[in-house]
């Protein structure tokens, strides 16, 4: 059985810090100035524009087509001179000596200065200029100027989080449209996390992955190597290539702390053994990526990783199961499940990892049912009170000869099915009254009440009551004769029957008591 983590990109299981290596919301498409409707503009608090910050704490956005200005990319663009000039920037992690490539669109706004200037630069967190990258002068209000550097410029400033910003020296509130702003930096890659462990039989084992932050303009192959460990390739785990070195292909794209599975699969071998390890490393490829921390700018990277396979091939455990207070008359198809509390390979026993049966030298009571496919034990209807038990056996699917036994016990509480029939024509229609019975005024009619216990247990203390029907008068001192079974001691009259009732003695399963009395027809 193979247990693996494979597939495409997977999100982090918990929130993690991220190292930013690209421009978020590069064309300002996350906002819609003034909402749906005709093209418009809006000056928005900088905190409401994803990714971007402004030294003036506001950003002016235009819909494409507003005042006949079509966006360079998408449906929105920005104006730098929002009420007053300022810096528009994002914080990005930079490393001294790395190459920076970029592109952006710059356009003059009609009504402003004849030539309008936007300076693309790197600055410190306080705004102090570290390095100018490009100065763009726009003189055409009818078209965009597209600026780019595809060969790259070497960053000469200190490593750390710095501003990638646009500033202008143009005065006033009119000028300098910006759009489609993108930078290309070497992507950061590391293992995430550096150490993992999971039981051998885990359905979704916790395995290390590649965490990627940054952009790839084309797909990149990352070579991962098994450098050591005590686990054996093939019998304990497999790799995508079947060898100690394999390649993970990362498609082109812009990644922000994305986790990419390695494609390792853990083999559930069924052997009882010590925990084992797999040690991994990444082959450096500085022309395509940097092995660096993706969670802390300038922090130490997880350049290697180790996964521990915790062996869970242990014998099953079986615990005794009990159910009490079961109604035997009604029965119950499910009073307990023998899998409850049992384990296989250190985890909960299930119908897929366990084999169940009645244990050798044991037998299933005829009053019970046992479904070996599900582990459910039931009680058949009309089961008398008592304790019914049997021993069951649980075996490991991967090791069918490794088994354990336990006891399943069901206590059925006493239960009875009492019924009563009343008739003035005993012996006819099964002692049940007939719809066409006739009585005559001034005559005496004799009633018979038959109380029957259909079991499955004995009933002691059943109370019988009755009341005269319309047009019938029963003398309170009229005697009530009791025959059959469960006859109580003493004598009784109709006043007892019509009052608190007559309490019967014990009626065993299948027994009946017959109460007889006479009344006057009005």
Automatic annotation (TrEMBL):
Family annotation (InterPro entries): CalX-like_sf, OmcB-like_DUF11
Gene3D superfamilies attached to this UniProt entry: 2.60.40.2030
SUPFAM superfamilies, A to Z: CalX-like (SSF141072)
Organism annotation: Pontixanthobacter gangjinensis
Domain of life: Bacteria
Record-given protein name: DUF11 domain-containing protein
DUF11 domain mapped to chain residues: 434-521
């Amino acid at each position: 059985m193979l247990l693996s983590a494979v597939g495409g990109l997977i999100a982090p299981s918990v929130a993690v810090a991220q190292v930013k290596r690209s421009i978020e919301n590069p064309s300002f498409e996350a906002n819609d100035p003034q909402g749906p409707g005709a093209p418009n503009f809006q000056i928005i608090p900088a905190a409401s524009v994803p990714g971007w910050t402004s030294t003036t704490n506001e950003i002016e956005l235009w819909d494409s087509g507003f005042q006949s200005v079509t966006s360079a990319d998408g449906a929105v663009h920005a104006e730098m001179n929002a009420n007053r000039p300022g810096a528009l920037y994002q914080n990005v992690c930079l490393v001294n000596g790395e190459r920076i490539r970029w592109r952006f669109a710059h356009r003059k706004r009609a009504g402003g200065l004849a030539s309008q200037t936007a300076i693309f630069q790197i600055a410190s967190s306080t705004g102090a200029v570290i390095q100018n990258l490009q100065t763009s002068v726009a003189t055409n209000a009818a078209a965009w100027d597209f600026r780019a550097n595809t060969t790259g410029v070497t960053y000469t400033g200190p490593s750390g989080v710095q501003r990638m910003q646009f500033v202008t020296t143009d005065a006033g509130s009119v000028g300098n449209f910006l759009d489609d702003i993108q930078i290309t930096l070497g992507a950061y890659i590391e293992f995430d996390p550096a150490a993992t462990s999971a039981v051998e039989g885990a359905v979704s084992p916790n395995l290390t992955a590649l965490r990627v932050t940054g952009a790839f303009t084309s797909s990149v192959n990352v070579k991962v190597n098994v450098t050591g460990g005590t686990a054996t390739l093939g019998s304990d785990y497999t790799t995508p290539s079947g060898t100690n070195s394999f390649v993970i292909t990362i498609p082109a794209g812009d990644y922000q702390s994305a986790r990419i599975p390695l494609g390792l699969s853990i083999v559930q071998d069924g052997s009882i053994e010590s925990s084992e390890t797999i040690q991994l490393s990444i082959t450096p490829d500085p022309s395509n990526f940097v092995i660096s921390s993706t969670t802390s700018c300038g922090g130490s990277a997880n350049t290697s990783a180790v996964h521990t396979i915790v062996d869970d091939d242990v014998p099953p455990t079986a615990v005794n199961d009990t159910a009490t207070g079961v109604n035997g008359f009604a029965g119950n198809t499910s009073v307990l499940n023998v899998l409850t509390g049992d384990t296989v390979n250190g985890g909960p026993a299930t119908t897929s990892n366990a084999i169940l049966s009645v244990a050798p030298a044991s037998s299933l009571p005829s009053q019970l049912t046992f479904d070996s496919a599900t582990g459910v034990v039931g009680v058949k209807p009309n089961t008398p009170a008592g304790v019914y038990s049997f021993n069951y056996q649980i075996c490991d699917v991967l090791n069918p000869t490794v088994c354990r036994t336990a006891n399943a016990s069901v206590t059925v509480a006493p239960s009875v099915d009492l019924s009563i029939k009343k008739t003035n024509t005993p012996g006819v229609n099964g002692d049940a009254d007939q719809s066409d019975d006739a009585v005559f005024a001034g005559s005496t009619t004799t009633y018979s009440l038959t109380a029957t216990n259909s079991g499955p247990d004995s009933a002691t203390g059943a109370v019988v009551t009755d009341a005269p029907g319309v047009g019938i008068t029963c003398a309170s001192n009229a005697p009530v004769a009791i025959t059959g079974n469960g006859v109580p001691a003493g004598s009784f009259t109709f006043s007892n029957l019509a009052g608190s009732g007559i309490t019967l003695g014990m009626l065993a399963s299948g027994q009946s008591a017959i109460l007889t009395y006479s009344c006057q027809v009005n």
